[in-house]
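Handout for the seminar on molecular recognition.
Each group receives one record of this type.
Step one: identify the two inputs.
Step two: read the structure output and locate the region that could contact 4'-phosphopantetheine.
Step three: write two sentences on what you found, then compare them with the reference statements printed after the record.
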Amino acid sequence: MKIAICPGSFDPITNGHLDIISRTSKLFDKVIVVVLSNYAKANSTFTAVERVEMINKCISGMPNVVADLYDGLLADYARTHNATAIVKGLRAVSDFEYEFQQALTNKQLNNEVETIFITSSAENMFLSSSVVRQVCKFGGDISRFVPPVIHDEIIKRIRS
Ligand code: PNS
């Protein structure tokens, strides 16, 4: 069985993330969406458990996708879950340097796992969790940025 990991902070998950997850699910037998800590992003808006719960609501229609959280190295998680690929979305050239560094680091830590990049869909090129948080915070419409199933709880949390 070919297992892929879609890792990220997912604070919160967006339509851009879901597009990558959905497309990955068509290429692999099983996809694990893992919420991990990014030490460059000190304060998260949602707890890790809340982020996993939101992901679970969004992936309910994808039978070969599961969500999890892990407080450790992605390379170690991949090893213990027999994953052969880490799949990430690339939005623009500006993503590349950071993602390339992460991919090479993960390869050093776990030589058995390959990082694969999927290009973002054109309509999601601008989209990120921080865009969602900012637009939401200042009263903008986020309905095109996040799935309806988590739309209201994001607004409730960020505007409270
Ligand atoms: O959505 P993000 O914030 O770009 O995702 C980055 C993430 C969480 C995948 C990355 O920071 C990560 O893998 N964190 C876990 C710790 C780790 O393994 N870091 C990579 C080696 S420095």
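Reference statements: Residues 12 and 50 are 9 Å apart (CA to CA). Residues 7-9, 36-38, 41, 73-75, 102, 105 surround 4'-phosphopantetheine (CB under 6 Å).
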